[in-house]
């Protein structure tokens, strides 16, 4: 179980913000374009892969096993298995972990793993009332029966159900993900100003990284059918200042809340891939690894507090490897909500939380925020649910490479009350 797992290379699409209409690319388009560009850089043929694993939280009905669809479209051939995993927000990270498990089990040596979602294309659904009415309509055999059904029809039956809103609502506790962030804000005393300052900083850091060209190698530009170029993450805004963000109304709890669209992650489309290899594959194909995945951890917690997932998942990693919070050179914590990231920082700094929830003798410490999401995060970049877990691993490795850092952790909260984390080492 100690066999090294190497990251050879990685690439992603620009993350494209939803504009309240279907985006220009289907999820398999995003996965295919990013994957083709990545595979073209490699010294091995796509058919040399042992498998393709893709995380996706909301595949469309015609792309249910989107991992196989993407594998075939990328030219991997009929004999390379392709499959899909789903762990909500950590689906992309789960794909990487599944690759690790298959390599260590001896089933694979060279895997393409990542995540994708096109959330702008989440479906509008009929209400239950409309579905029942249609069922009765199609079952009716006589004109009299259909006339009776028409008399009972109500225009309200046609009101659409937003599929994405159902997907972002926890079915066990009945809370939208943003309402769980409100819970954390209340629990840790996080006020509106703190959330907006954090959100504005995310935008500022992404803008600075774009201007410095830090995403250039990571992002594969896209062209739509009209020839329009998409070269950068397009949700970032220069006018996202604390003052402007303060003008937005709370969305999830209009009367008492502080979580707004501006201090939350964006609904976005995007895809990410990483090439994962064993030592045998490195030697066989003469690959040059960029880093390795040292360890990974999954954790679970109360779904109503789901945003603390990074704390529950990353802490065991730190303990197993004898590391403190600031012994790492970089951190990537997915920014589902500003309140959620701030709550994670405060949880680690709390004696009471660390004793009662993590079984530690005292607080773990205060995370140095100069090491956290140094190029911004999902508040500015966006959060295609299936892709984000892979994106933060890829970007963490790129940050370590750029800064000559050695180790870092990528961590993510997961709808349903879970957390995932990976310890990455640059080579």
CATH class term of the domain at 177-213 and 293-426: Alpha Beta
Q: Classify the beta-strand content into a percent band.
A: 15-25%
Order of helices and strands: EEHEHEHEEHHEHHHEEHEHEHEHHHHEE
Tell me the overall shape: globular
Query: Helix amount, in percent?
Result: 25-40%
Strands, count: 14
CATH architecture of the domain at 177-213 and 293-426: 3-Layer(aba) Sandwich
Summarize the biggest pleated sheet.
10 strands, mixed
Average of per-residue pLDDT values: 96
Provide the gyration radius in Å: 22 Å
Distance between the termini: 20 Å
Within CATH, the superfamily of the domain at 177-213 and 293-426 carries the name Thiolase/Chalcone synthase
The tally of helices reads 15
Q: What do we call the CATH topology of the domain at 177-213 and 293-426? A: Peroxisomal Thiolase, Chain A, domain 1
What are the low-pLDDT stretches, counting only 5+ consecutive residues below 50? none
Helix and strand content put the structural class at alpha+beta
Reconstruct the topology from this structure.
Layout: E1 6-12, E2 16-17, H1 27-40, E3 51-55, H2 66-73, E4 82-85, H3 91-104, E5 110-118, E6 124-125, H4 128-139, H5 143-152, E7 161-162, H6 163-167, H7 177-188, H8 192-212, E8 222-223, E9 229-230, H9 242-245, E10 268-277, H10 279-285, E11 291-300, H11 309-320, E12 330-333, H12 338-348, H13 351-358, H14 378-381, H15 388-403, E13 407-414, E14 418-426
Parallel strand pairs: 3-4, 3-5, 12-13
Antiparallel strand pairs: 1-10, 1-11, 2-10, 5-10, 6-7, 8-9, 11-14, 13-14
């Amino acid at each position: 179980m100690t066999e090294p797992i190497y990251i050879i290379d990685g690439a992603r699409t620009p993350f494209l913000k939803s504009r309240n209409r279907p985006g220009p690319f289907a999820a398999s388009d995003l996965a295919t374009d990013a994957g083709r560009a990545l595979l073209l850089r490699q010294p091995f043929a796509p058919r040399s892969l042992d498998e393709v694993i893709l995380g996706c939280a909301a595949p469309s009905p015609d792309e249910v096993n989107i991992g196989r669809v993407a594998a075939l479209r990328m030219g991997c051939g009929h004999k390379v298995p392709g499959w899909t995993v789903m762990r909500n927000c950590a689906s992309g990270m789960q794909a990487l972990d599944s690759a690790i498990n298959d390599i260590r089990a001896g089933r694979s040596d060279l895997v393409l793993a990542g995540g994708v979602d096109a959330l702008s294309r989440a479906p509008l659904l009929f209400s239950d009332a409309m579905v029942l009415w249609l069922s009765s309509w199609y079952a009716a055999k006589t004109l009299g029966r259909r006339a009776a059904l028409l008399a009972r029809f109500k225009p309200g039956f046609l009101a659409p159900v937003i599929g994405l809103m159902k997907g972002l609502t926890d079915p066990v506790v009945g809370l939208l993900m943003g309402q769980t962030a409100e819970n954390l804000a209340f629990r840790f005393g996080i006020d509106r100003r703190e959330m907006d300052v954090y959100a504005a900083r995310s935008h500022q850091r992404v803008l600075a990284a774009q201007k410095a060209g830090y995403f250039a190698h990571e992002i594969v530009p896209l062209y739509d059918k009209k020839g329009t170029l998409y070269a950068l993450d397009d949700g970032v805004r220069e006018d996202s200042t604390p003052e402007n963000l303060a003008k937005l109304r709370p969305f999830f709890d209009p009367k008492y809340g502080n979580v707004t669209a501006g201090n939350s992650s964006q609904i976005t489309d995007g895809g990410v891939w990483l090439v994962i290899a064993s030592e045998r594959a490195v030697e066989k194909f003469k690959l040059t690894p960029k880093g390795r995945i040292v360890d990974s951890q999954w954790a679970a917690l109360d779904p109503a507090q789901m945003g603390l997932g990074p704390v529950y998942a990353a802490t065991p990693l730190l303990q197993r490897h004898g590391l403190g919070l600031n012994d790492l050179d970089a951190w990537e914590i997915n920014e589902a909500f500003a309140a959620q990231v701030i709550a994670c920082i405060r949880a680690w700094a709390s004696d009471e939380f660390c004793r009662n929830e993590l079984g530690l003798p005292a607080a773990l410490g205060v995370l140095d925020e100069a090491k956290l999401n140094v190029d911004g995060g999902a508040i500015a970049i966006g959060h295609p649910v299936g892709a984000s877990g892979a994106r933060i691993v890829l970007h963490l490795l790129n940050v370590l490479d750029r800064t000559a850092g050695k180790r870092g952790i990528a961590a993510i909260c997961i709808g349903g009350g879970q957390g995932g984390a990976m310890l990455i080492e640059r080579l």
